Predict the 3D structure of the following.
Amino acid sequence: MAQAPAPLPDTDAGFVGLFSAQARATPQRTFAELCGEALSFGALAEASARLGAWLDAIGVAPGDRVALMLRNGEAALSLMLALARAGILWVPINPQSVGDSLAYVLQHAEPRLVIAEADLLPAIGASGVKLGERLLEVEAARRAAANLPAKDLGPPPAADAPFAIMYTSGTTGRPKGVIVSHRMLRLAGEAAALVAAPGPGDVFYVWEPLFHIGGAQLLVLPLIRAVRLALAQGFRARTFWADVRAAQATHIHFLGGILQILLKQPEGPFDRDHGVRIAWGGGCPAEIWAAFEARFGLKIRECYGMTECSSITTANLDGPIGSVGKPVPWFDVAILDPAGQPVGAGRRGEMVVTERVPGALTEGYFRDREATAQALQSGAFRTGDLASCDGDGNITFHGRLTDSVRVRGENVTAAEVEAVVRQHPAVEDCAVIAVAADVGEAEIKLFITLRPGAQLEAAELSGWFTGRLARYQRPRYIAILDAFQRTPSARIMKHVLSRRVDDCWDAGPARA
């Protein structure tokens, strides 16, 4: 399968050395803007060096693990770089985490130190994990570091040294700790540049949290292109275009259902009054692609990837609408049947990734040999994703292999049903899961949220499916929610959706 037309980058230097070189050469250059305030390379280098000195002074050594529970901002940037420069493994934690999910990550990662924002300390305490002196408030850490001279951290870590343990979003179950190397983050940034095609002076609006690979990979962009970042505190659909305009952004990133949510918002004065040229990311359904470009006056650049594969695996640079494109230059992709044999053009199978640049794939999952052995087989990464490939090498993503429902002898993929449901003008977003059936393997349960101001009854929606979905594809159960619980990348957390059948509208059993 052909690769995207770009040379293989030299990633042996990772990314830390690139940052240090830029900070020495152009210390006044803006790395990022935070709430309109510029953060220069020089200021970020000094702050991270002081934090490195503080970490060394309290006995945190290269190879140790430090967890950060921080929102987007200068503290998160400087601490991430301090850890990277010192060879300390970063364990990012979602600031929204609470209870059992938070306790699981803290217990599994066993960090030497946990640094969190002040208002998040009660959530950590309530999780039941006993951290004692290992838990520090971020501003206290920054004050202690400010009193120390900046530390010369020596040569950067090797490219294939671990940079982070990034716990997956957990849309279907317990998160796994993906070991991400310095080379992998560098390749993630190189791929972002390949997909987004920025020019000198461009501005990337960063709504995605830095603790997610989609946000973290953007740290590399100012090191390899003459661009700057505009950090936001998160995704806000109702003010998105006003926020983007205020940031003077030229590029926006999307994942999950972001584009569908934006398209369902009421028309506003900033729909075209912004400077964005490119919306890039993964998860744009074919049916809204052209409509989104037409309404907001920009170009969509689609890609596909996973944290385990340096974030981005394929890129649609010039392929057809609906395709995730072709492999980026450091990967090969095969579409295989259950026996491990390649399928023909247009046929569906599992997407399996191999590396052309050694170290582009993760070495595995932290403290999880079974999951590592399942995913990495004979030097290839089994994505667990369903895909097909046309005769020109353009790949189409069809959803997770496990995200399907067996209904009366027919396999129904959730993505196919969800694509149709999202076409209803009153639906903002939706999700499909399998629930127990009275007769047969399973039934389909559909969850929807409505766009602002819209009204829709479950029975009305069910009737709308006639002629749009085959009988076996039509959901028996429909639940209307106020909002979905989402991962940091805005994907719906399906594993928390109710599998009860007595809390929703029921169409009744299908007639023969």
Residues 41-57 form the longest helix (17 residues). The chain has a mean pLDDT of 92. The chain has two domains: 16-388, 405-506.
